[in-house]
UniProtKB/TrEMBL annotation, chains A, B:
This is MerR family transcriptional regulator. CDD domains: HTH_TipAL-Mta. Keywords: DNA-binding, Repressor, Transcription, Transcription regulation. SUPFAM superfamilies: Antibiotic binding domain of TipA-like multidrug resistance regulators (SSF89082), Putative DNA-binding domain (SSF46955). Residues 1-72 form the HTH merR-type domain. It comes from the Bacteria. GO terms for molecular function: DNA binding; DNA-binding transcription factor activity. It comes from Agromyces albus. Pfam families: MerR_1 (PF13411), TipAS (PF07739).
DNA sequence: CTAGAGGTTGACGCTGCGTCAAGGTCAAGT
DNA sequence: ACTTGACCTTGACGCAGCGTCAACCTCTAG
């Protein structure tokens, strides 16, 4: 008989018997013959198929796809081209992750600078301490400060990114000239509300979310103070944001 | 109560309630409070922890590692540096895979050239047809040829690589001047035997492996024909290989 | 006759949740 | 009071590809 036992063919192809049993289970590669004792035996045609399987597997293709290719249900080119996209996307993902990890490590080694960051809705955290304390009390500032300082540099970056995204969305909405009381602007106000809610220790943080006073107070401050307003496209944009927020507050808070 | 329901905190952190239950299950993030009805509730401290979890998770860290970092059992720097290695290795792996896939696609598009490849132990497949037929008959050549043509370009490359590796190992052994009858050289002869066995359709392919005649015939041919001998470091190397193979054949075949 | 190598069929484990399934709870509307 | 409907709970399977026991035959050599 010109065939091999399961371990023999496994060695020839550089794999394991367990793998071959698995391939049998899922129908990818059946033994060419099964002995009366239940033993699996493979011939040279099976070896060729197995070698193709190993090759495609090493290229990263999934077993179902390999089965399609080998059974002529799909062309190898097509499958490989699709797979190539996958691989490239994965590589980009990894590149981004590597960059993020490097930046994070750098930040940690840099002593985890906590200051010179933005908070309280885009404020530099320490620079505007007086305004915050004056408006919402020393306690509000202290609690928020403690929370903020507890975050790592990257976490802060994430928060800033959320703030930035929200800001640019506000600006885009303003520039399109939509109605501050319309659905779209109100949806933004809703997001603004949720965002504030995510800052523990402030009058806005907590399950209930910002109080009406805090929400309206912020809205007015965006207009009154250009340092805030800058985050929303300047005085005109800030007015738009304030209007939308005011409508939202009246309707929901 | 300054806390949130499971869905609320999930939205605040940009994840799902299922994930939070999972984190509870594995002990990564327990709810700060559990209602009499079994509901999970999370406070601001839990939110901060959750946000850190999401950040580290986005960097690609595993949940157990994240737990260690957050519980101060391991430093973030250390964990991230280790992770960075992981990521770089993965990226290299992907790069190699991408290159392989591209080469394979190119080969397929190139019409899958089957000739100008090596076989029958390093022979150019078609170039030495006569010798092969003369030594082992037309049938041997035809069967092996059919098998060989059935392989893809990459599969052939894999076979050549195995041949090359074996060849360089032989050469290295020869240059170190070891005993052809010693354990090391005999182990190489064993590998040579296994390798020949993996070529179906030849006098060497099949469960039993090469016959003694085929094995010895090849060994002599390595010495007699420089085209073979070149694969084993020239005439002197070929003699070493022949001696080792002869000993092996006498002992085991 | 027995040991040892090798074969068989289950079945769990791993990573990180997504996705039902079956069934309580709660606020709102009728 | 009753019914929705939204949200909560605890299981438990599924995925990709095998590694790794476990418990139990089978074959070969001494």
């Amino acid at each position: 008989m010109d065939d091999w036992s399961i371990q023999e063919i496994a060695k020839l192809a550089g794999t394991t018997s367990r793998t071959l049993r698995h391939y049998d289970d899922i129908g990818l590669l059946a033994p060419s013959r099964i002995g009366g004792n239940g033993y699996r035996y493979y011939d040279d045609r099976a070896l060729v198929r197995l070698q193709r399987i190993m090759l495609l597997r090493d290229l990263g293709l999934g077993l179902p796809v390999i089965a399609e290719v080998l059974d002529r249900e799909a062309s190898a080119q097509h499958a490989l081209l699709g797979h190539l996209e996958w691989l490239r996307n994965e590589q980009e993902r990894l590149a981004r992750q590597i960059a993020s990890v490097e930046r994070t490590i750098g930040a940690l080694e840099g002593g985890e600078r906590l200051m010179a960051d933005q908070m309280f809705d885009g404020f530099d955290h320490t620079q505007y301490k007086e305004e915050v304390e004056q408006r919402w009390g020393k306690d509000a500032y202290a609690k928020s400060d403690a929370w903020w300082r507890g975050l790592s540099a990257d976490e802060k970056a994430a928060w800033r990114e959320r703030a930035t995204t929200l800001g640019t969305d506000w600006i885009a909405a303003f520039e399109r000239g939509i109605d501050p009381a319309g659905d779209e602007a109100q949806a933004l106000a809703q997001r603004h509300f949720e965002w504030l809610r995510g800052i523990p220790g402030t009058p806005g943080g907590g399950a209930g979310g910002p109080t009406k006073e805090y929400f309206l107070g912020l809205a007015e401050m965006y207009v009154a103070d250009d340092r805030f307003g800058a985050n929303y496209g300047g005085p005109a944009g800030a007015e738009f944001v304030r209007d939308a927020m005011t409508v939202y507050a009246e309707r929901n808070l």
